[in-house]
Write a structure and sequence with these properties.
By secondary structure, the chain is α+β, with helices and mostly antiparallel strands. It contains 10 helices and 15 strands. A hairpin with a 3-residue loop joins strand 14 (347-352) and strand 15 (356-361). The model has no long low-confidence stretch (mean pLDDT 92).
Length: 386
């Protein structure tokens, strides 16, 4: 079967077709713990995982172009012998499994899955997948559906898939507020100079350097306030180092509502947050917070169709829950690690609920990266606002 690609998938496909190296920044790598309440045969476990993945047709799809339109063409169902099984492997992140980029225009399958058995009831579940067909919220849906299938509880059906996909497509077509959204972005991006030489160093060819840091942000603040404090701090310091007039930070917004939360698909649009060099750190925080709140209201808006020239982000920021656990009476799945091959921008910041910050760099613009992190963290202070 064929399904029309979303605007986000259109953008992924065009970018990876023009520049195959871009595939590496769209690899999502995840390591989960799978803990069973009682032993289940390996054959049953593999079959259950296969059936769960096969109930989501877009997960096994690849892009095709017909009459100048991009479609997702569903491929062959996953078979249990395609799942790699290993025993007592404690070097989970090394090797080709996580470090080989997918090729969006040529690969017949855009995900890899591995099961590492540690004991009769304790496994590591490894998943490498292209962002074209998957996002963070897909991980929540997938793991929940796996444990539901193991307990023979509610199973996600093909009919549910069709309903959720139809709702998603309808949301992308709605025009009600889109003119308003376009005006908001036009105002936000007005008079910004476009530096055609920006990121000319080609960050995709640079080695990734990463740092893990504990930051001090009040956990009682809501996610938008916490995110605004961190984004403002790093953007403010970035502008002092580079001496640019502004910085554009890309922040993903999920195109998810209650009616399509169980669909596995690439349903995240990245919207810009603009910070000006002329702003004080307090003005940066206020401005970033306001833009984050606006962005969340603009789900399903096709930003790149109108503003593609502004999507070459200097920094990407991602917020994700650290307490990622799904469980029932049969099993529990915990996300232990989420990481990339190459960051999606020269600087990639990932903050979780526990104030653990993962900073990924693929840039030579900032020579002393640990010093940049420390100076940025020095700007994190102040109370709640907005």
């Amino acid at each position: 079967m064929k399904y029309k690609a979303s605007p986000i998938q259109r953008d992924f496909f065009i970018e990876c077709m023009v520049n195959p190296k871009a595939n590496s920044k769209y690899n999502i790598n995840m390591i989960f713990s799978l803990i069973l309440q009682e032993e289940i045969s390996e054959e049953v476990l593999l079959e259950t995982i296969c059936n769960t993945l096969n109930n989501q047709p877009l997960l096994s799809s690849t892009p095709v172009v017909e009459n100048s339109e991009i479609f997702l063409n569903t491929g062959k169902p996953l078979k249990s012998n395609e799942i790699i099984v290993e025993y007592n492997n404690y070097q989970l992140e090394s090797g080709e499994f996580f470090n080989t980029p997918f090729d969006l225009t040529n690969d017949s399958r855009l995900f890899r899955i591995k099961l590492v058995k540690k004991s009769s009831t304790n496994y590591s579940l490894l998943l490498a997948v292209h962002h074209f067909i998957f996002d963070f919220y897909s991980a929540i849906a997938l793991t929940q559906q796996i444990i539901d299938a193991l307990s023979r509880e509610e199973i996600f059906t093909f009919e549910q898939f069709q309903q959720e996909l139809h709702l998603t497509n309808q949301k992308f077509k709605e025009k009600g507020n889109f003119i308003k959204y376009e005006n908001i972005f036009q105002t936000r991006l007005a008079n910004l100079p476009i530096d055609t030489k920006k990121n000319a160093e080609d960050f995709l060819n640079l080695s990734k350097v990463e740092f893990r840091t504990k930051v001090e942000i009040n956990k009682n603040f809501d996610n938008n306030h916490r995110s605004a404090i961190l984004i403002a701090a790093f953007a403010y310091e970035y502008l002092r180092i580079t001496n640019n007039s502004h910085v554009i930070v890309g922040v993903p917004v999920p195109n998810r509502i209650k009616g399509n939360k169980d669909l596995i698909d690439g349903l995240v649009t990245t919207y810009p947050v603009v910070i000006l060099k002329s702003h004080t750190i307090e003005e940066c925080r206020e401005s970033v917070y306001k833009q984050l709140v606006e962005n969340l209201k603009m789900q399903f808006f096709d930003f790149n169709k109108k503003f593609y020239k502004f999507s070459n982000f200097d920094i990407m920021f991602t917020y994700y829950p650290s307490n990622f656990i799904v469980s029932n009476s049969t099993a529990k799945i915990i996300m232990n690690r989420l990481f990339t091959i190459v960051p999606p921008s020269p600087i990639h910041l990932m903050l979780n609920d526990d104030n653990i910050l993962l900073s990924e760099f693929s840039t030579n613009q900032i020579q002393n990266k640990s010093e940049y992190i420390q100076k940025s963290l020095n700007h994190i202070e102040g109370g709640k606002y907005g």
